[in-house]
Design a protein that fits this description.
This protein has 227 residues and is of the alpha+beta class. Helix content is 16%, strand content 37%. This is Dipeptidylpeptidase IV N-terminal domain-containing protein.
Length: 227
């Protein structure tokens, strides 16, 4: 009986393998109607970033990016969706143009989104855009790039991180960074491990958490203090 059982299982396996190696053509689409999906097509697809839900939980904003292989450039903008109506309501909240990089959206209130961009400023700064009329305003004007923005309505403050040197302000760190970049030698002395992360050397500057007070009255958002 044991031998018969093994024989039966082996026979089933052969039948299954026969279907695998000789599939019916009817199981496949007409390949003449389709284009091969290759890396060239893949890198030109639009990519969606992390979404941000509005305080009233009825709207979503997310970044959308696309790579241009010819110019070796990337562009990114913000998209807005009314989730009570579905994805068909999605529109561009900021313009989708070359060399523009609007990213990391967060909600200030139900009609205002803050995000990171350069847009002609000296570094990556905080901007706001209205979901009502699409008006874009610059909120901060730092000389050092910021990232990881978070807003607290209760505290009336905006938190972010920026790379600074120990004992220096953001502006002082920019001056120090420029001084190092203009040195005649690029040598660096490392006094402890580790010295490299992925493709970057670990230098003396570190990401520091900052907060700034902001006011939000009559749909006018302003910075009211220093980091």
């Amino acid at each position: 009986m044991k031998f018969l059982g093994i024989f039966f299982i082996t026979s089933l396996a052969h039948l299954g393998l026969a279907d695998v190696f000789n599939p019916s053509p009817s199981q496949f689409p007409d390949w003449n109607k389709y284009t091969k999906f290759n890396p060239e097509i893949y890198i030109q697809l639009k990519r969606i970033g992390s979404p941000a839900l509005s305080p009233n939980k009825k709207q979503v904003v997310y970044p959308q990016s696309k790579y241009n292989k010819t110019d070796n450039t990337n562009k990114r903008n913000l998209r807005w969706v009314d989730i009570t109506k579905g994805f068909s309501s999605a529109i561009d909240l900021t313009s989708f143009t070359d060399n523009q990089n609007d990213n990391q959206p967060i909600w200030i209130d139900d009609s205002t989104v803050a995000f990171l961009a350069v847009r002609g400023s000296q570094a990556l700064n905080v901007f706001t855009v209205s979901t009502v009329d699409g008006k874009v305003s610059q909120l901060t004007n730092f000389t050092s790039s910021v990232s990881n923005i978070v807003y607290s309505k209760e505290a009336g403050r905006l938190a972010f991180t920026a790379s600074v040197y120990k004992g220096m302000t953001m502006d002082q760190s920019v001056v120090e960074r420029d001084r190092i970049a203009n040195l005649p030698s690029s040598g660096v002395v490392h006094k402890k491990l580790f010295v490299r992360h992925w493709n970057e050397w670990i230098l003396d500057d570190r990401n520091q958490l900052f907060t700034i007070p902001i006011s939000n009255t009559y749909n006018s958002i302003k910075v009211t203090g220093d980091p």
